[in-house]
Specification:
The protein has about 260 residues and is α+β, with helices and mostly antiparallel strands. About 35% of the residues lie in helices and about 25% in strands. It contains seven helices and 14 strands. Bound molecules: adenosine-2'-monophosphate (2AM) and calcium ion.
Protein backbone atom coordinates (compact mmCIF):
# COMPACT_ATOMS: atom_id res chain seq x y z
CA UNK A 1 0.00 0.00 0.00
CA UNK A 2 1.26 3.47 -0.91
CA UNK A 3 0.68 5.41 2.31
CA UNK A 4 1.77 8.69 0.69
CA UNK A 5 -0.98 8.31 -1.92
CA UNK A 6 -3.45 7.37 0.82
CA UNK A 7 -2.45 10.58 2.62
CA UNK A 8 -2.93 12.71 -0.52
CA UNK A 9 -6.30 11.10 -1.26
CA UNK A 10 -7.51 11.63 2.33
CA UNK A 11 -6.46 15.29 2.22
CA UNK A 12 -8.29 15.81 -1.08
CA UNK A 13 -11.45 14.27 0.39
CA UNK A 14 -11.18 16.53 3.46
CA UNK A 15 -10.78 19.66 1.33
CA UNK A 16 -13.75 18.76 -0.86
CA UNK A 17 -15.86 17.92 2.21
CA UNK A 18 -14.84 21.29 3.68
CA UNK A 19 -16.06 23.06 0.53
CA UNK A 20 -19.38 21.29 0.85
CA UNK A 21 -19.77 22.28 4.51
CA UNK A 22 -18.91 25.94 3.81
CA UNK A 23 -21.41 25.97 0.93
CA UNK A 24 -24.08 24.57 3.27
CA UNK A 25 -23.91 27.71 5.43
CA UNK A 26 -26.22 29.49 3.00
CA UNK A 27 -28.97 26.83 3.16
CA UNK A 28 -31.27 25.93 6.03
CA UNK A 29 -30.21 23.08 8.33
CA UNK A 30 -32.42 20.19 9.27
CA UNK A 31 -31.66 19.37 12.94
CA UNK A 32 -32.57 16.22 14.87
CA UNK A 33 -31.56 14.93 18.28
CA UNK A 34 -30.12 11.45 18.86
CA UNK A 35 -29.54 9.81 22.28
CA UNK A 36 -30.73 12.88 24.23
CA UNK A 37 -32.06 16.38 23.56
CA UNK A 38 -28.57 17.92 23.39
CA UNK A 39 -27.02 15.15 21.25
CA UNK A 40 -27.60 16.71 17.85
CA UNK A 41 -27.21 15.69 14.23
CA UNK A 42 -27.96 17.60 11.02
CA UNK A 43 -28.48 16.67 7.40
CA UNK A 44 -24.94 17.97 6.76
CA UNK A 45 -23.33 15.53 9.25
CA UNK A 46 -25.05 12.72 7.35
CA UNK A 47 -24.32 14.05 3.86
CA UNK A 48 -20.62 14.55 4.63
CA UNK A 49 -20.25 11.05 6.07
CA UNK A 50 -21.94 9.61 2.98
CA UNK A 51 -19.65 11.68 0.73
CA UNK A 52 -16.56 10.14 2.42
CA UNK A 53 -18.01 6.64 2.20
CA UNK A 54 -18.63 6.97 -1.54
CA UNK A 55 -15.08 8.26 -2.11
CA UNK A 56 -13.41 5.64 0.13
CA UNK A 57 -15.40 2.74 -1.34
CA UNK A 58 -14.51 3.84 -4.87
CA UNK A 59 -10.77 4.28 -4.21
CA UNK A 60 -10.17 1.67 -1.49
CA UNK A 61 -12.90 -1.02 -1.63
CA UNK A 62 -11.12 -3.28 0.88
CA UNK A 63 -10.95 -0.58 3.58
CA UNK A 64 -13.50 -0.42 6.41
CA UNK A 65 -15.20 2.72 7.70
CA UNK A 66 -16.26 3.51 11.26
CA UNK A 67 -18.39 6.66 11.04
CA UNK A 68 -20.32 8.45 13.76
CA UNK A 69 -23.57 8.59 11.78
CA UNK A 70 -23.53 4.85 11.15
CA UNK A 71 -23.41 4.75 7.33
CA UNK A 72 -20.11 2.86 7.39
CA UNK A 73 -19.42 -0.68 8.56
CA UNK A 74 -20.52 -2.29 11.82
CA UNK A 75 -17.12 -3.29 13.18
CA UNK A 76 -16.34 -6.00 15.71
CA UNK A 77 -12.56 -5.83 15.25
CA UNK A 78 -9.96 -3.40 13.93
CA UNK A 79 -8.04 -5.70 11.59
CA UNK A 80 -7.05 -4.25 8.23
CA UNK A 81 -7.37 -0.58 7.30
CA UNK A 82 -10.13 1.29 9.14
CA UNK A 83 -11.09 4.91 8.48
CA UNK A 84 -12.50 6.42 11.69
CA UNK A 85 -14.56 9.44 10.73
CA UNK A 86 -16.54 12.11 12.49
CA UNK A 87 -17.94 14.24 9.65
CA UNK A 88 -18.62 17.12 12.05
CA UNK A 89 -17.05 17.05 15.51
CA UNK A 90 -18.68 19.83 17.51
CA UNK A 91 -22.13 19.61 15.94
CA UNK A 92 -23.65 21.88 18.59
CA UNK A 93 -21.09 24.56 17.66
CA UNK A 94 -21.76 23.96 13.95
CA UNK A 95 -25.46 24.63 14.54
CA UNK A 96 -25.21 27.51 17.02
CA UNK A 97 -21.97 29.23 15.98
CA UNK A 98 -20.98 28.08 12.47
CA UNK A 99 -17.43 27.80 13.81
CA UNK A 100 -15.47 25.78 16.40
CA UNK A 101 -16.14 22.44 14.70
CA UNK A 102 -13.94 20.17 12.60
CA UNK A 103 -13.86 17.08 10.44
CA UNK A 104 -12.03 14.39 12.40
CA UNK A 105 -10.43 11.47 10.56
CA UNK A 106 -7.99 8.77 11.61
CA UNK A 107 -6.75 5.95 9.38
CA UNK A 108 -5.78 2.88 11.42
CA UNK A 109 -3.99 -0.30 10.38
CA UNK A 110 -4.67 -3.34 12.58
CA UNK A 111 -5.73 -0.99 15.38
CA UNK A 112 -2.75 1.36 15.17
CA UNK A 113 -3.10 4.95 13.95
CA UNK A 114 -1.03 5.60 10.81
CA UNK A 115 -2.58 8.84 9.51
CA UNK A 116 -4.51 11.50 11.41
CA UNK A 117 -6.40 14.63 10.36
CA UNK A 118 -8.40 17.40 11.97
CA UNK A 119 -9.77 19.91 9.49
CA UNK A 120 -11.00 23.25 10.85
CA UNK A 121 -13.22 23.96 7.89
CA UNK A 122 -14.03 27.60 8.72
CA UNK A 123 -10.39 28.66 9.22
CA UNK A 124 -9.15 26.34 6.43
CA UNK A 125 -6.63 24.88 8.91
CA UNK A 126 -5.71 21.26 8.32
CA UNK A 127 -3.85 19.50 11.15
CA UNK A 128 -2.32 16.27 9.90
CA UNK A 129 0.15 13.60 10.87
CA UNK A 130 1.74 10.53 9.37
CA UNK A 131 3.01 8.24 12.11
CA UNK A 132 6.79 8.56 12.36
CA UNK A 133 6.90 11.56 10.02
CA UNK A 134 5.74 14.36 12.33
CA UNK A 135 2.65 16.55 12.56
CA UNK A 136 1.72 19.57 10.46
CA UNK A 137 -0.65 22.54 10.55
CA UNK A 138 -1.24 23.13 6.84
CA UNK A 139 2.36 23.02 5.50
CA UNK A 140 4.09 24.04 8.75
CA UNK A 141 5.63 21.37 10.95
CA UNK A 142 4.23 21.45 14.51
CA UNK A 143 7.09 21.58 17.04
CA UNK A 144 7.63 18.89 19.68
CA UNK A 145 5.97 19.83 23.00
CA UNK A 146 8.12 20.88 25.96
CA UNK A 147 7.08 19.97 29.51
CA UNK A 148 5.14 22.46 31.64
CA UNK A 149 4.02 22.74 35.27
CA UNK A 150 0.51 22.47 36.71
CA UNK A 151 0.71 26.14 37.74
CA UNK A 152 1.38 27.27 34.17
CA UNK A 153 -1.05 24.87 32.47
CA UNK A 154 -4.29 25.64 30.65
CA UNK A 155 -6.68 22.67 30.72
CA UNK A 156 -9.47 21.93 28.25
CA UNK A 157 -12.43 20.60 30.19
CA UNK A 158 -16.22 20.86 30.16
CA UNK A 159 -17.68 22.55 33.26
CA UNK A 160 -20.18 19.72 33.65
CA UNK A 161 -17.41 17.48 35.05
CA UNK A 162 -16.63 19.98 37.84
CA UNK A 163 -20.16 19.87 39.27
CA UNK A 164 -21.27 16.65 41.00
CA UNK A 165 -21.73 13.98 38.29
CA UNK A 166 -21.91 10.21 37.84
CA UNK A 167 -18.46 9.79 36.26
CA UNK A 168 -15.77 11.41 38.40
CA UNK A 169 -15.21 12.65 41.98
CA UNK A 170 -15.58 16.37 41.40
CA UNK A 171 -13.55 17.53 44.44
CA UNK A 172 -10.35 16.51 42.60
CA UNK A 173 -11.38 18.60 39.60
CA UNK A 174 -12.28 21.57 41.83
CA UNK A 175 -8.70 21.44 43.16
CA UNK A 176 -7.37 21.19 39.59
CA UNK A 177 -9.36 24.29 38.60
CA UNK A 178 -7.81 26.11 41.59
CA UNK A 179 -4.25 24.99 40.83
CA UNK A 180 -3.94 25.59 37.08
CA UNK A 181 -3.48 28.84 35.20
CA UNK A 182 -6.76 28.53 33.29
CA UNK A 183 -9.59 26.33 32.04
CA UNK A 184 -11.03 26.39 28.52
CA UNK A 185 -13.88 24.54 26.84
CA UNK A 186 -14.19 24.57 23.05
CA UNK A 187 -16.92 21.94 22.56
CA UNK A 188 -15.07 19.85 19.96
CA UNK A 189 -12.85 17.02 21.19
CA UNK A 190 -11.01 17.00 17.86
CA UNK A 191 -10.17 20.71 18.03
CA UNK A 192 -9.14 20.41 21.69
CA UNK A 193 -6.72 17.65 20.65
CA UNK A 194 -5.39 19.91 17.89
CA UNK A 195 -4.95 22.68 20.47
CA UNK A 196 -3.03 20.34 22.79
CA UNK A 197 -0.81 19.30 19.87
CA UNK A 198 -0.07 22.95 19.02
CA UNK A 199 0.48 23.94 22.68
CA UNK A 200 -2.49 26.33 22.88
CA UNK A 201 -3.77 24.27 25.78
CA UNK A 202 -1.74 21.76 27.80
CA UNK A 203 -4.27 19.00 28.46
CA UNK A 204 -7.82 17.98 27.57
CA UNK A 205 -10.16 15.50 29.25
CA UNK A 206 -13.63 14.11 28.69
CA UNK A 207 -15.71 11.48 30.48
CA UNK A 208 -17.24 10.05 27.34
CA UNK A 209 -15.85 10.05 23.83
CA UNK A 210 -16.12 7.76 20.83
CA UNK A 211 -13.26 6.52 18.62
CA UNK A 212 -14.10 8.89 15.75
CA UNK A 213 -13.85 11.93 18.07
CA UNK A 214 -10.19 11.23 18.87
CA UNK A 215 -8.80 8.81 16.24
CA UNK A 216 -7.23 11.49 14.05
CA UNK A 217 -6.14 13.73 16.88
CA UNK A 218 -4.36 10.92 18.72
CA UNK A 219 -2.03 10.35 15.76
CA UNK A 220 -1.30 14.09 15.60
CA UNK A 221 -0.82 14.51 19.35
CA UNK A 222 1.46 11.50 19.62
CA UNK A 223 3.76 12.84 16.86
CA UNK A 224 4.54 15.89 19.01
CA UNK A 225 5.02 13.92 22.23
CA UNK A 226 1.62 14.32 23.91
CA UNK A 227 0.32 11.30 25.81
CA UNK A 228 -3.27 10.09 25.22
CA UNK A 229 -5.00 7.45 27.34
CA UNK A 230 -8.33 6.98 29.06
CA UNK A 231 -8.74 8.58 32.51
CA UNK A 232 -7.49 5.37 34.16
CA UNK A 233 -4.20 5.80 32.30
CA UNK A 234 -4.90 2.81 30.06
CA UNK A 235 -4.61 2.74 26.29
CA UNK A 236 -7.89 3.68 24.68
CA UNK A 237 -10.49 1.21 23.47
CA UNK A 238 -10.94 2.18 19.82
CA UNK A 239 -14.23 0.28 19.59
CA UNK A 240 -16.94 1.75 21.82
CA UNK A 241 -16.94 4.76 24.12
CA UNK A 242 -14.34 5.49 26.79
CA UNK A 243 -13.09 8.31 28.98
CA UNK A 244 -10.29 10.35 27.41
CA UNK A 245 -7.26 12.28 28.60
CA UNK A 246 -4.46 13.86 26.57
CA UNK A 247 -1.66 16.06 27.92
CA UNK A 248 1.94 17.01 27.47
CA UNK A 249 4.39 14.43 28.79
CA UNK A 250 4.93 14.80 32.56
CA UNK A 251 1.73 16.76 33.10
CA UNK A 252 -0.26 13.68 32.03
CA UNK A 253 0.94 11.51 34.93
CA UNK A 254 0.83 14.37 37.48
CA UNK A 255 -2.82 15.14 36.76
CA UNK A 256 -3.86 11.48 36.71
CA UNK A 257 -2.13 10.79 40.02
CA UNK A 258 -3.10 13.91 41.94
CA UNK A 259 -6.52 15.00 40.65
CA UNK A 260 -8.41 12.18 38.91
CA UNK A 261 -10.63 9.70 40.76
CA UNK A 262 -13.24 8.00 38.60
CA UNK A 263 -16.42 6.66 40.21
P1 LIG B 1 -19.90 15.56 18.45
O1 LIG B 1 -20.07 17.00 18.28
O2 LIG B 1 -19.41 14.86 17.23
O3 LIG B 1 -21.15 14.91 19.01
C1 LIG B 1 -18.34 18.02 23.05
O4 LIG B 1 -17.87 18.34 24.31
C2 LIG B 1 -17.47 16.94 22.45
O5 LIG B 1 -17.88 15.65 22.93
C3 LIG B 1 -17.62 16.86 20.95
O6 LIG B 1 -16.42 16.40 20.41
C4 LIG B 1 -18.76 15.89 20.77
O7 LIG B 1 -18.74 15.26 19.52
C5 LIG B 1 -18.46 14.91 21.87
N1 LIG B 1 -19.66 14.25 22.38
C6 LIG B 1 -20.77 14.87 22.77
N2 LIG B 1 -21.69 14.00 23.23
C7 LIG B 1 -21.14 12.78 23.12
C8 LIG B 1 -21.59 11.47 23.41
N3 LIG B 1 -22.80 11.25 23.92
N4 LIG B 1 -20.76 10.45 23.17
C9 LIG B 1 -19.54 10.68 22.64
N5 LIG B 1 -19.07 11.90 22.34
C10 LIG B 1 -19.85 12.95 22.57
CA1 LIG C 1 -20.10 14.36 15.12
Amino acid sequence: MDIFKLDRDAKNMLKEAGNRIRTSFSSELSIESKADANDLVTNIDKEIEQFFIRQINAAYPSHLILGEEGFGNQLEHLEGIVWMLDPIDGTMNFIHQKRNFAISLGIYKDGEGILGYIYDVVLDELYSAHKGHGAFLNDERIPFLEETSIQEAIIGMNASWVVPNDHIENDGLIQLVRDVRGIRSYGSAALELAYVATGRIDAYMSMRLSPWDVAGGMVIASEVGAVATNLRGESLKMLGTDTFFVARGGLHQQILTNYIKLK
